[in-house]
Design goal:
- The chain has 216 residues and is mainly α.
- It is built from ten helices and no strands.
- It is a multi-pass membrane protein.
- Keywords: Membrane, Transmembrane, Transmembrane helix.
Length: 216
């Protein structure tokens, strides 16, 4: 679990990045690509220096069109194979967090199974309804409201995550064994920046920016 101060700092820096993107007129703002999780798992390289060098290469290839055309000529089946590997690691990384939970607990197994089932069933209903009727199940005079309901509930990860989050934070929380079943005790030392000696290595900013953006 990332310390709250690190999360706040990351959101702030992302806001600054989006502001700079708007100045330069980019098509999309600063965002996170899940493929990078798979790339990190394959290469085992998580250094910021590598990211900075990669950004320099991307700027270089964007300025010189011939080099960009070289990468654009890579056949799509190669990209498809890379994505299969990357997303396999992404899925495995998400499932690996279950190792901290008590999978022998009926509560854990129920939340896991029920969220998977609802996460597949509800979006399937929304998508099939839209394909037959031409609009989603929520069809009012306000299109913005329709999109607010139909679009998220047509997404399987969103529905599964929402159901799992709701059940995990409501079912039998008053019982003392539930906290251990949820795996929260594994993350206690990471809730504060100073409780783990590796926090400075993991979350320190380059160019001595920690003086201006300290972590607690």
């Amino acid at each position: 679990m990332i310390p709250p101060s690190i999360v706040s700092r990351g959101i702030g820096w992302q806001g600054i990045g989006i502001l700079l993107d708007s100045f330069f007129g980019t098509a999309n703002g600063t965002s996170v690509a899940v493929e990078n999780v798979g790339l990190l798992a394959v290469t085992h390289v998580g250094s910021r220096r590598v990211v900075q060098i990669s950004a320099g290469f991307m700027i270089f290839f964007a300025v010189l069109g011939k080099f960009g055309a070289l990468f654009a000529s890579i056949p799509l089946p190669i990209f498809a194979g890379m994505y299969c590997v990357f997303f396999a690691y992404v899925g495995a990384c998400g499932l690996s967090f279950l190792q901290f939970c008590n999978l022998n607990s009926f509560r854990t197994k129920f939340i896991l199974g029920f969220s998977f089932f609802i996460g597949i069933s509800v979006p399937q209903y929304f998508n099939e309804y839209a394909s037959v009727s031409g609009h989603g199940p929520v069809h009012t005079g306000a299109r913005w409201f329709n999109d607010m309901i139909n679009v998220p509930f047509s997404n399987k990860p969103f529905v599964a995550g929402l159901v799992a989050y709701f059940l995990d934070n409501t079912m039998h929380l008053h019982q003392s064994a539930v906290r251990k079943d949820r795996g929260y005790h594994w993350w206690d030392k990471f809730r504060s920046f100073k409780k783990d000696a590796r926090s400075e290595e993991f979350y320190s900013l380059p160019f001595n920016l920690n003086k201006f953006f300290p972590s607690v």
